């Protein structure tokens, strides 16, 4: 096991691989997403934007950003205590700050700010990667609450 292959990373990768075939929206929008790191309560992933990620004007579609906030929040909750079920959404909020286009790479960071017995509260940030592959401009931020006592 490499230093970056934490138990949380292995768990989240396995869980995501199990979810994709059972979720039409995740399979359609996030099939190429790669979880790159995970520690307790924090998950990072990368995705190259394709035609199905952009709106009619060529920018990252708002619904895709909201889906990403939903997904990464669940993965952050799963990384918190290696749970199998990531809950159901009770509230989601996305703030759009800039955009990205087809072909751009994005990095997604999700954090489980609080995981209780009934609810989980997460935040997410979507970054556009710069030419060096480093997080640059923030595209969107989000907060997401989930009912996790399922």
Produce a short descriptive summary:
With about 150 residues, the chain is of the alpha+beta class. Helix content is about 25%, strand content about 40%.
Structure in words:
There is one protein chain. By secondary structure, this protein is α+β, with helices and mostly antiparallel strands. Helices cover 27% and strands 38% of the residues. The protein has 3 helices and 6 strands, in the order H-H-E-E-H-E-E-E-E. A 6-stranded antiparallel beta sheet has the order 1-2-4-5-6-3. A hairpin with a 2-residue loop joins strand 1 and strand 2 (42-48). The relative contact order is 0.19. The mean pLDDT is 95.
Largest sheet data = 6 strands, antiparallel
> Multimeric state of these chains?
single chain
User: Could you estimate the helical fraction of the residues in percent?
Assistant: 25-40%
Shape: globular
- How much strand? 35-45%
Number-wise, the strands total 6
With helices defined by DSSP (H or I, 4 residues minimum), what is the helix count? 3
| Rounded mean pLDDT score | 95
Specify the structural class. Answer: alpha+beta
Tell me the Rg in angstroms: 14 Å
Question: Which runs of at least 5 residues are low in confidence (pLDDT < 50)?
Answer: none
Distance N terminus to C terminus?
Answer: 32 Å
Strand order of the largest sheet: 1-2-4-5-6-3
